[in-house]
Design goal:
With 703 residues, the protein is of the alpha+beta class. It is 45% helix and 18% strand. InterPro entries: 7TMR_DISM_rcpt_extracell_dom1 (IPR011623), 7TMR_DISM_rcpt_extracell_dom2 (IPR011622), Bact_Sigma-Reg (IPR052016), PPM-type-like_dom_sf (IPR036457), PPM-type_phosphatase-like_dom (IPR001932).
Length: 703
């Protein structure tokens, strides 16, 4: 028997006989061909042909063929949606009245589906909202429409916002097919009706004929199918746009309000929060279809990628906001480190979404949402346990968001039954409540910042008072006059810096040729240092009989101050100078070296041994002496001079000081002081009042 030439032409997927149009055609294939076709269909998940069609022609097979034909008449026919006047008022959800088949291979086209419709195990819809989760399959929908009692235009609406391909196939009485396409890959201007859902008109000559819809998407698939007239479409759009207009308007007001606050308070938490709300709004607009309609109607890229892209960026800002607002870096370091892990994972997901890997990105986004929810819940519970107030507002807001996010993620990952409220309403309502509570949390933070600011101002005022008291004590402790030695010129510079310290100096001159000079630096700052300075001044006054011996002066001061200035201590240098005998003796207790510069230019750095004063019961001070000559110069200083730093964190140091002494040996004392200060300012790059430490030095010039 010759083969029928009317076989469908599919190179990759051989088709089975067209039993719908005539079962006798199946007998024109060879037994081997029929066996291969049946196996092929079975391997593709389609209902296999009855086994008896593979038998040779005989009376028994003919009997089974008659039996099969009678069973075919009982096979479920294409469901017909009734439009009787008492059932249809212009708005009818028909999801339960359709049939759906999942093509896991994704390679069958419409002609094949139509020609083999009776062999395909279409399943009747069991819910008003079908949920297929993440799937790379193609879903075929089949149904018929009864002609409406009135001659009016009707429309089919696929209620979903994330479908890549939606193809409608309408046939008329002459079997001519009308195809209408929509979906993410069809930009708004190219659709039959620009709409946030997928809307097409129904040709009037397609009633009573099979209508097929092909749906495929890389994002989680949840759909409902509505049959509407034009009046109902306008009514639904009007009511929905009121609700969503209010929702997105609230988001806009929240963003502008917090942007204004961020401008004044300069708090980075507000920037993180604004980023979170802004990209959350873009994600919601993409998910609900408004972004494709209003923001980028000509861009299939953003229409398709917007949901995982914007929600991923939103989640990234939320992680930053939670970490900063809850101060995890200071309070819970392990949680703070985990936020870095989350941030890296989210950034990678943003890259996937931007690159068009929507299937992977959308799945990862759902799992990241669940992981982030669990992580924040643990952190919030820890904050509740520690009774930290900022966690209360944050926790209340987060639990609402977490509940809606988890429910929504479960619906996207799984295939549980869903509905319009869960698909469209729960997340916007919960997120609006969540965002509002976060605003309250930030408002509470403003109050906290105000209190912290008031406390800081009080501290500053108190500190200024303390500084003024310290300065007054220091000024009162300093000598009121400089001793007059005819053959000696004395230059003094003392500058307390940001915090008044304990630098002070003192002289004792019993006659016109002897001078004892003490320079000290007290550890610490403020009033305590000033008080210790005053005590040091008193201790020095008890050593006037030992003016000729630096060793006796410093050791005697230690015995008096030990146990009376704890925890502070003093470093000190003492010089005895006799212009009549040309004697110079020097001792130091933990203080910087002294410098003797000869008239010839030679510089002696003198650093005898000696521990600090006030810490040990007894200290041993080494004393070094030199003969002096007219024209020699002696420099005593505190550590504020050599320990001045520049912007590179380099120290001025002793070497630069020696270089300065060498280059300015011939300057008079008053000009020498100005030159040193100028050199220090030039090195540090700061003005004199910006230095971090007190600076004190004394220059003695022998005439």
């Amino acid at each position: 028997m010759e083969r029928d030439d009317r076989r469908p032409k599919y190179e990759d997927w051989p088709s089975s006989p067209n039993l719908h149009r005539g079962r006798r055609n199946s007998l024109r294939y060879s037994e081997k061909e029929r066996l291969n076709i049946g196996t092929e269909i079975c391997g593709r998940g389609i209902k296999p042909l009855p086994f008896f069609l593979f038998f040779k022609r005989n009376y028994l097979s003919f009997f089974f063929l008659l039996l099969f034909s009678s069973q075919t008449l009982l096979y479920s026919q294409t469901p017909t949606v009734s439009l009787a006047e008492n059932h249809f008022d212009g708005n009818l959800r028909i999801t339960k009245q359709i049939e759906v088949w999942e093509d896991k291979s994704g390679k069958f086209d419409f002609d094949w589906i139509r020609n083999h419709s009776e062999e395909i195990p279409f399943q009747k819809g069991i819910s008003d909202y079908l949920n297929y989760g993440f799937s790379k399959s193609v879903f075929w929908i089949r149904f018929r429409l009864e002609k409406p009692p009135e001659d009016k235009d009707l429309f089919l609406l696929i209620k979903a916002h994330n479908i890549d391909y939606v193809d409608f196939y309408f046939s008329n009485t002459s079997e001519k097919i009308t195809k209408k396409q929509t979906g993410h890959f069809v930009v708004m201007p190219e659709r039959e009706f620009p709409h946030r859902h997928y809307l097409v008109s129904i040709p009037k000559d397609s009633y009573g004929k099979d209508i097929y819809i092909r749906i495929k998407s890389d994002i989680s698939l949840q759909i409902a199918i509505d049959l509407l007239d034009w009046k109902s479409i306008h009514q639904i759009d009007y009511s929905e746009q009121w609700f969503y207009g209010f929702f997105f308007g609230c988001l806009g007001i929240i963003i502008l309000y917090n942007l204004a606050i961020a401008f004044f308070v300069r708090d980075i938490n507000y920037l993180f929060y604004i980023g979170y709300v802004f990209f959350f709004g873009l994600g919601q607009m993409s998910m609900l279809g408004f972004a494709g309609y209003f923001l980028f109607p000509d861009s299939s890229l953003f229409m398709r990628n917007g949901i995982p892209l914007f929600f991923s960026i939103c989640m990234l800002f939320f992680v930053f906001f939670a970490s900063s607002f809850l101060k995890l870096k200071e309070r819970l370091k392990i949680a703070y480190r985990f936020t870095y892990v989350l941030a890296i994972a989210i950034i990678l997901n943003v890259i996937f979404a931007a690159a068009g890997e929507i299937y992977i990105s959308a799945i990862v986004l759902s799992w990241l949402t669940s992981i982030l929810s669990g992580f924040i819940m643990i952190v919030v519970l820890w904050g509740f346990y520690k009774r930290i107030i900022s966690f209360y507002y944050f926790g209340a807001a987060f639990f609402i968001l977490m509940a809606s996010s988890v429910i929504y993620s479960i619906l996207k990952i799984t295939t549980f039954e869903t509905n319009t409220f869960l698909e469209e309403m729960i997340f916007p309502i919960a997120s609006l409540a969540d965002i509002t509570l976060f605003s309250f949390a930030l408002a509470d933070r403003i109050q906290l910042l105000r209190l912290e600011k008031d406390q800081a101002i009080e501290q500053i005022v108190l500190h200024e008072k303390e500084r003024q008291i310290s300065k007054d004590l220091l000024v009162q402790a300093l000598p009121k006059a400089i001793p007059y030695i005819p053959s000696l010129s004395i230059q003094i510079f003392i500058q307390p810096m940001k915090q008044v310290g304990g630098d002070f100096y003192e002289f004792h001159s019993p006659n016109s040729c002897e001078l004892g000079t003490l320079i000290c630096d007290v550890s610490g700052h403020g009033i305590p240092a000033s008080l210790v300075s005053a005590m040091g001044k008193v201790a020095f006054s008890t050593q006037k009989k030992n003016i000729f011996s630096p060793k006796r002066v410093l050791e005697g001061m230690n015995r008096i101050l030990y146990g009376n200035c704890t925890p502070e201590y003093l470093t000190a240098s003492y010089v005895y100078l006799n212009t009549e005998t040309n004697t110079w003796r020097f001792g130091r207790a933990g203080h910087p070296s002294g410098f003797l510069q000869r008239k010839t230019g030679e510089i002696l750095t003198v650093h005898p041994q000696g521990k600090v004063i006030g810490t040990f019961p007894e200290i041993q001070i080494e004393e070094i002496g030199f003969l002096t000559n007219p024209g020699d110069r002696i420099l005593l200083l505190t550590d504020g001079v050599p320990e001045s730093f520049n912007s590179l964190d380099e120290m001025y140091g002793e070497e630069r000081l020696l270089e300065f002494l060498k280059n300015n040996a011939n300057l008079p004392g008053d000009l020498w002081v100005k030159a040193l200060l100028s050199d220090l300012e030039s090195f540090s790059g700061k003005g004199l009042k910006e230095w971090e430490d007190d600076i004190t030095f004394i220059l003695l010039d022998l005439k």
